[in-house]
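Fill in residues.
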């Protein structure tokens, strides 16, 4: 078992989602800060009444002011988090703000301990030892999400009062100082263990969440993943002022191919469709298989309508290419309905409903793709029957793009 505290100084780069969640956990300490502020008032007032020391009073007032400001900062963080998902850079900014205030608080607690050991009041020193121990335990249990911060806090809070106790002289004070330093050394391993355990739990949580949101056949995100992520994507687009487009795809003549060549061939086609769509998808986009032969592609960073239509044109072209399955050349096509969100806010349900309506129009007109409009053109009814037999649809699929 490694007990070296210096491992915390080397750092460990976590995946973005886990790092953001770890920072969020840091900001769950508001109740602890309130308890600390109240106890600081009580302890500081008691020591001041006992000693009449103006330095004690000043440190106590500063500690309470810092605690109130920390509570205000924590509330600001939660308001920001409610507006949308926090990015890694934003999380790093908030972590720095938290660390500065936490270090200031620790320094004030340590200064209070040093001052108490400078005064000739054993009962006051007994009280401050209890206060220092309580604060250190709070740091171990609640700030272990950021081990380097916990490490520095423990040093600031424990070491200066321990040195002052050692300088005080006498067997009892020397033993007290050594006991506190031994506790400090053991606390490093507690923080390390707590941190590693938390990270491992979050990794498993993300792994199982990813499995729950993954389509078993294609490996793409499934409907649950769409529900979990689309709202966050919309919020991010609103916050950063860019547009997005939702493309809903439905494969043409897939059912007939599946019935004619069998389910293994159908599965092979769906996997190849997923691969081709993945090649058209950027890292910031979201590609989903809703089920059956229906897919959703959420295109981010859409500054103009032509970006969405250009992508839809590529989708129609690539998905319409021949599929080689067990020596057979199988032809299918696709229809795409597009809903674009630019200046107005649309909920996930509204965006999907608009894209679905546009898909319906695209299938009825056999036009390849259609962008949703609030006043769609009248179109002829969808021809009944097995559209797998419509071999000319592939050549007509881009004839009426909008």
């Amino acid at each position: 078992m490694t007990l070296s505290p210096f491992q915390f100084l080397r750092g460990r780069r976590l995946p973005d989602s886990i790092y953001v969640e770890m920072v969020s956990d840091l900001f769950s300490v508001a109740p602890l800060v309130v308890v600390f502020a109240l106890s600081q008032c009580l302890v500081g007032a008691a020591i001041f009444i006992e000693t009449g020391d103006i330095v004690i009073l000043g440190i106590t007032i500063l500690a309470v002011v810092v605690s109130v400001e920390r509570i205000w900062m924590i509330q600001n963080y939660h308001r920001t988090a409610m507006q949308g998902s926090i990015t890694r850079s934003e999380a790093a900014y908030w972590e720095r703000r938290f660390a500065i205030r936490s270090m200031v608080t620790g320094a004030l607690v340590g200064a209070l301990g040093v001052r108490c050991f400078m005064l000739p009041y054993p009962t006051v020193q007994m009280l401050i030892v209890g206060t220092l121990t309580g604060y250190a335990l709070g740091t171990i249990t609640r700030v272990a999400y950021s081990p380097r911060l916990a490490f520095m806090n423990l040093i600031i809070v424990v070491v200066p009062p321990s040195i002052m106790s050692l300088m005080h002289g006498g067997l009892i004070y020397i033993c007290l100082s050594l006991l506190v330093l031994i506790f400090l050394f053991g606390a490093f391993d507690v923080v390390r263990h707590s941190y590693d355990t938390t990270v491992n739990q979050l990794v498993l949580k993300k792994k199982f969440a990813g499995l729950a949101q993954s389509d078993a056949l294609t490996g793409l995100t499934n409907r649950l993943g769409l529900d979990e992520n689309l709202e966050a994507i919309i919020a991010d687009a609103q916050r950063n002022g860019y547009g997005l487009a939702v493309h809903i795809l439905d494969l043409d003549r897939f059912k007939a191919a599946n019935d004619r060549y069998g389910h293994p061939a159908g599965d092979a086609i769906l996997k190849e469709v997923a691969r081709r769509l993945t090649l058209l998808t950027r890292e910031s986009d979201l590609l989903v298989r809703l089920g059956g032969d229906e897919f959703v592609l959420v295109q981010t960073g859409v500054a103009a309508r032509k970006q969405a239509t250009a992508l839809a044109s590529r989708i129609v072209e690539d998905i319409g290419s021949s599929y080689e399955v067990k020596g057979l050349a199988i032809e299918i096509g696709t229809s795409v309905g597009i809903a674009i969100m630019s200046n107005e806010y649309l909920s996930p349900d509204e965006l999907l409903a608009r894209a679905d309506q546009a898909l319906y129009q695209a299938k009825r007109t056999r036009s390849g793709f259609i962008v949703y409009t609030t006043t769609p053109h009248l179109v002829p009814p969808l021809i009944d029957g097995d559209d797998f037999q419509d071999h000319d649809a592939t050549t007509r699929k881009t004839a009426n793009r909008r």
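The longest strand covers residues 243-252.
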